[in-house]
Amino acid sequence: MAAGLLAPEQASAAAQAAQALPIALPPSVRALIDVGDPDDPIARQFIPSAQELSTAPEELSDPIGDAALSPVKGIVHRYPDRVLLKPLLVCPVYCRFCFRRGQVGPDGGMLTPAELDAALAYIAARPDIWEVVLTGGDPLMLSPARLSGLMMRLSAIPHVAVVRLHSRLPIATPERVTQNMVESLRLGGATHLVLHCNHPRELTDAVTAACRRLAEAGLVLLAQTVLLKGVNADVETLETLLRRLVANRIQPYYLHHPDLVRGTAHFRPTLAEGQALVRALRGRLSGLCQPTYVLDIPGGHGKVPVGPSWYDHSAQAVQDGQAVWHPYPD
Length: 330
Fold this sequence. Notes:
Layout: H1 8-20, H2 27-30, H3 41-46, E1 75-79, E2 82-85, H4 113-124, E3 131-134, H5 144-155, E4 162-167, H6 169-172, H7 179-185, E5 190-196, H8 205-216, E6 220-226, H9 235-247, E7 251-256, H10 271-284, E8 292-297, E9 302-305, E10 311-312, E11 317-319, E12 325-327
Parallel strand pairs: 2-3, 3-4, 4-5, 5-6, 6-7, 7-8
Antiparallel strand pairs: 1-2, 8-9, 10-11, 11-12
Helix pairs in contact: 5-7
């Protein structure tokens, strides 16, 4: 799949790395890669490198503690009012920094009918569950018929008010956003679709057209971005990305600090570097373009904001977007 994209001296290490996480490059993604640029930000996200063969001491096979919080196959129940439902573990493209890299792949299992029944029964039996987050894998890899059936079954549970889907598919394979898929997603009532998009070059004409079809069908479109060294960890790239998202009716939602995934240290900026970027964006961009900078605490303890602090209690002062301090009594 990566033929022609790697120098011969890189191919052996890349093949080793691909044993841990396969390569999938749909034509629309491959077309975005500048083969003449050894530091191409699109290739960096999807083409394996020798750096993946090194594991830092703090890195984990299950960095956010999914396994311990899975009472039923396909369910992760971390927060009282919402659950993750993973109907399958296949994606249209595999990100080299994926926190579920040990689970996803072309052979990633789809829940059997009995397993899906058990997962939905778990949700139906717990009235505190207000939101179901469909993830995986990529839930939009389900056929329209399977997706329709799942959305209808979720909408029939009275206490489930919101269905949220997390997907790379409209970004990686926009041609698969057919009218049948759009109609399937409309069956869920208050449906939110969170798109994973990391670089402005990913927002091609075909992608924005697919997103327009989704928005015009009444879906709420959000975006999550992973902060990645060599991809988007600079103010100019993030500024362009966030503005393009908002201009296409996609609301920036989360800017993720990369999880402590094995073999991904080369992607992770420091928290201080991330906070400096968020601080700079506050002074440059509309509030519509400001995602929440978050990290997932290892061990399953949840997601928390880790943005910069703007107020100094001891100095009784607040900092503006240009890093100037102003007195403000508390």
